[in-house]
Write a structure and sequence with these properties.
heterodimer, A: about 160 residues, alpha+beta, about 35% helix, about 15% strand, B: about 775 residues, seven-stranded mixed sheet, six-stranded mixed sheet
């Protein structure tokens, strides 16, 4: 069964007809072509598909698309200002926090959501903020350093 | 211009990745693309009697159905060396593990493909199966492959000196058995193959692989078409770590479906399919016997290893050799015997993994600590007494061209405060040390060489073509950095085209850590070749001899060649002049590893003949880690709190990137050292750990405090003296943890991972022994 829904993604209003069984992840990737949000486990264990909905980080693989009705969604494609990187993105690049890059969008969304609500987190708060995200390349150290650097940049 | 070597440079490609704009295989959609699903065996071992696909074929939206019986070209068998060609990628005789592909469907959407899969009827004759190497080696055990006696996939033997005599002449002979369980790569990006068949006969692939040319070879052998009809396109890749080294059945199946349907076909695996049906790391049993003199000198050692590869040998065959390469170049042994067997079972296929070498180094570091205690020796001195030195020849007749092993032991001990802390850290806290190493490349005949090419544009910008690929560790950055260093062209004017089998020359790929020594050396030679051509024309244009000209970036948009003040020409002008002369600027470079072919044979027979000796590797990396642990004696949980890691990776090309790769290796090693292990239902052969909920990997919360150090000892073979820098240094971590556990609570753990239940059991045994003594 298909249902018409309206939601705001990265500042743009979209009205789409979606199968009510489809997840937000599927609709973002397949209907809107926003492939920056990644599928890793598709069952809420890895954080790879994290997006921000009405200011809160959510797992788009565990969210039905229709739950986003009238909501504001920010995906990784909506974080930078044109080609000017957001401080979190800039710090990830500069600190070497990106290796294969597949988990990166999820980490950046979790980190952005963390800094939006807590601009000055401790190291433990940073670890807690990304504890739901799995990375197999970096060992997390440079990711934590990047989030610390982004927080510092935000304070300036 | 100051040198770029040793500068911390951001990874090329990071900005696109940070913006979510990089294209991974799973992101690529082609016009008219179909979606595929595989039907998988529910039996661990079963003969395939008949497959009825008629009902599936009639479902509207189904465009192609393939089975092994109807569609697999006969004689097309995959195996990375001729001896282990055992894998028909879509089988027609039997299924050898739960999850093996037996049929596949391509349809206009995933739901229809799923429905069609369920409509296929397969008649199986279930067969008895084996799930452990112990059972597989028993007489009369069911055979996974009928032609492999005792389920033995391969056997490798090195026997040098006289091991029995060495033991007889020793003051102490130490023997122990170490094990490690089957671990998962748990790669972020689910395996996906997209194949688009062209009626001319060409197969275009987009898929994750760390060695495109090896995969192309496997597809060539199984699809039975010319190499030029198989093109693997460049893609970004969500993790590899050794797990994307083989030709996967999914690529072969997508090719069959695409040819049949006449449309592009995407075959994407679910997380469960990835974990059940792609690759694991082989379980290992390592029994080691070492002879020592009173002063701690090793007289000889004997190793018996059994490696369990699952249903097919795949690249686990390499894992049979690598522990030898690792062990023999770490610690001296005048007499040496290494006997390794690769055994089939009806389980998920095992392959290479970046942590591959951990059991061997662990056994040696535990031995040094135990023997030092028994003989009253200093644990550091006993290591230094036996550590291999530069230019030593090891039992298999290879020469170690550079090693900083001894220096790394001394530095790790010093930085961690090892001597002051050992035995004095207080209750339940301990310190330990462990060394490791890794080969930089692995001999694979002519396929272990790399050829690079650089093409110049008329503005002076250029593109480097290399068959090497970039898994995220930063190979693109390394190739760009080296080209810039050689030619003086700014990095922003250099692009790298990598891993495309149609555009690039053959390269081993990221196979056995060959990127730095093999691929980057080829790129360096190509850049040097281009530099000479540039200099020649520059000399002409400036009317001086070519060796009076120098190349450097003057900080502007272009590069100038200057002699004296103000005199110069732009690189663009040089390139345009070259075009006008009909001799465009290019660079061509080739690197073949320094291998003593006369003494070495990879003509692998069963059992291996003893001529498999000689130089198989160009350079080895080394390093030592010291760790501090806390052991919770109520729960048995071991927590690693601090790591000091010393890396002998030759010259450090790009410290920030190497440090990041080091963190990654330590993280992988930590997970597998403390909790990562797969579990099977022994009644059915079904894997029970097929997702991140049941197979736990480390998160940010488990990250210890890490200090990293470099020795910066240049290697004579590596580009600018660099060698493998991400893995070898950390392969001693499990030995370090085992030793630290002993220092903390006085129990010895020999089996990886060091699970809480194991530690609790050991603590209870220790307590019981203590109680007995008191009585």
């Amino acid at each position: 069964m298909k249902q018409e829904m309206t939601f705001n993604v990265n500042g743009e209003q979209h009205t789409v007809k979606v199968d009510i069984r489809r997840t937000l992840l599927e609709v973002l990737r397949e209907t809107l072509g926003l492939t920056g949000t990644k599928e890793m486990c598709n069952k809420g264990d890895c954080g790879g598909c994290t997006v921000i909905m009405d200011g809160r980080p959510i797992l788009s693989c565990l969210t039905l698309a229709v739950e986003a009705q009238n909501k504001e969604i920010v995906t990784i494609e909506g974080v930078a200002d044109g080609y000017t990187l957001h401080p979190v993105q800039q710090a990830f690049v500069e600190k070497g926090a990106i290796q294969c890059g597949y988990c990166t969008p999820g980490f950046i969304m979790s980190a952005k959501a963390l800094l939006d609500r807590n601009p000055n987190p401790t190291e433990d708060e940073i670890k807690e903020g990304i504890a739901n995200n799995i990375c197999r390349c970096t060992g997390y150290v440079q990711i934590i350093e990047a989030i610390q650097a982004a927080a510092k940049a935000g304070r300036r | 211009m100051s040198s770029l070597i040793g500068k911390s440079l951001a990874r090329i490609g990071s900005v696109d990745k940070a913006m979510g704009l990089s294209k991974f295989t799973t992101d690529i959609v082609l016009p008219g693309m179909l979606y595929a699903k595989s039907l998988r065996s529910p039996h661990a071992h079963a003969r395939i009697l008949n497959i009825d696909t008629s009902k599936a074929e009639r479902i509207p939206g189904v465009k192609a159905v393939v089975t092994g019986i109807k569609d697999t070209p006969r004689g097309g068998v995959f195996g990375i060396i001729p001896h282990t060609r055992d894998h028909v990628l879509l089988p027609f005789d039997k299924a050898r593990y739960i999850g093996e592909e037996v049929a596949a469907v391509a349809a206009i959407d995933e739901d229809i493909a799923e429905e069609a899969i369920e409509a296929i009827k397969v008649d199986y004759e279930p067969l008895p199966f084996v799930l452990t190497w112990q059972d597989a080696m028993k007489e009369g055990a069911p055979l996974v492959h009928e032609n492999r006696v005792g389920n033995r996939a391969a056997h490798y033997l090195v026997n040098e000196g006289n091991i029995e005599e060495a033991f007889a002449n020793s003051d102490l002979v130490w023997e122990k058995t170490f094990t490690c369980e089957v671990a998962s790569h748990a790669l972020p990006e689910p395996f996906t193959a997209l194949c688009s068949f062209e009626p001319s006969g060409k197969y275009n692939f987009w898929m994750q692989t760390q060695c495109p040319f090896q995969v192309r070879q496997g597809l060539h052998n199984t699809l039975k078409v010319p190499l030029s009809d198989i093109r693997l396109h460049t893609v970004e890749m969500g993790g590899a770590h050794g797990g994307r080294s083989d030709t996967p059945p999914g690529a072969f199946i997508a090719a069959l479906l695409s040819r049949k349907a006449g449309k592009p076909v995407q075959l994407k695996l679910s997380r469960e399919e990835v974990e059940d049906c792609m690759r694991d790391k082989a379980a290992k049993v390592w029994t080691i016997k070492i002879g020592f003199k009173k002063d701690g000198t090793i007289t000889g050692r004997e190793i018996n290893m059994v490696l369990e590869c699952g249903a097919y040998a795949s690249s686990a065959i390499v894992e049979l050799w690598v522990p030898l390469l690792i062990d023999e170049v770490l610690w001296r042994a005048p007499s040496y015997r290494y006997d390794a067997k690769l055994i089939y079972t009806n389980k998920t296929i095992s392959s290479m993994m970046r942590t591959r070498a951990h059991v061997g180094p662990m056994s040696m570091d535990v031995a040094f600590d135990e023997v030092a205690e028994k003989l009253g020796l200093d644990p550091i001195k006993i290591r230094l007494k036996n550590a291999i030195l530069p230019n030593e020849v090891v039992p298999s007749k290879a020469t170690v061209t550079s090693t900083g092993l001894s220096e790394s032991i001394v530095m790790a001990a010093e930085k961690s405060g090892y001597k002051k802390k050992l035995g004095k850290m207080g209750p339940k806290r301990g310190i330990g040390i462990g060394s490791g190493n890794m080969q930089s490349m692995f001999y694979m005949g002519f396929r272990s060489g790399s050829t690079a090419f650089i093409k110049f544009n008329d503005d002076g910008s250029c593109t480097v073509f290399t068959g090497n690929c970039d898994l995220g560790q930063g190979n693109r950055t390394m190739h760009t950095q080296i080209t810039s260093e050689v030619t003086g062209i700014p990095m922003s004017m250099i692009k790298v085209c990598y891993g495309d089998t149609e555009l690039c020359y053959q390269d081993p790929g990221d196979y056995s850590m060959s990127a730095t020594v093999v691929s980057a050396n080829a790129v360096k030679r190509a850049a040097e070749d281009a530099r000479l051509r540039i200099l020649e024309i520059a000399g002409d244009l400036l009317d001086v001899a070519w060796d009076e000209v120098e190349l450097r970036d003057d900080g502007k948009y272009y590069v100038k060649l200057r002699i004296g003040k103000g005199k110069g020409v732009s690189l663009g002008e040089i390139c345009r002049t070259a075009f006008k002369r009909g001799k465009p600027i290019y660079g061509f470079g080739d690197y073949r590893a320094r291998i003593d072919y006369s003494d070495f044979s990879v003509d692998v027979k069963e059992p291996y003949n003893e001529k498999t000796y000689g130089m198989k590797v160009t350079a080895y990396s080394f390093g030592t880690t010291a760790v501090q642990v806390e052991v919770d004696t109520d729960t048995g949980v071991v927590k690693v709190t601090d790591i000091w890691a010393v890396n002998d990776c030759g010259t450090v090309l790009n410290p920030m990137l190497v440090i990041g790769n080091m963190h990654g290796q330590l993280n992988f090693m930590l997970g597998q050292g403390l909790y990562e292990a797969n579990v099977w239902d022994m009644k059915t052969g079904r894997k029970l750990t097929s997702d991140f909920r049941t197979y736990k990997v480390p998160t940010a919360n488990e990250t210890p405090r890490i200090e990293t150090y470099f020795l910066n000892i240049p290697d004579p073979q590596g580009p600018y003296g660099a060698k493998e820098g991400s893995l070898g240094f950390g392969c001693g971590l499990h030995g370090a943890i085992s030793n630290a556990i002993y220092d903390a609570v006085g129990v010895r753990a020999y089996d990886v991972p060091f699970k809480p239940e194991t530690i609790l059991k050991l603590l209870k045994e220790k307590e019981a022994k203590g109680a007995k003594k008191k009585k």
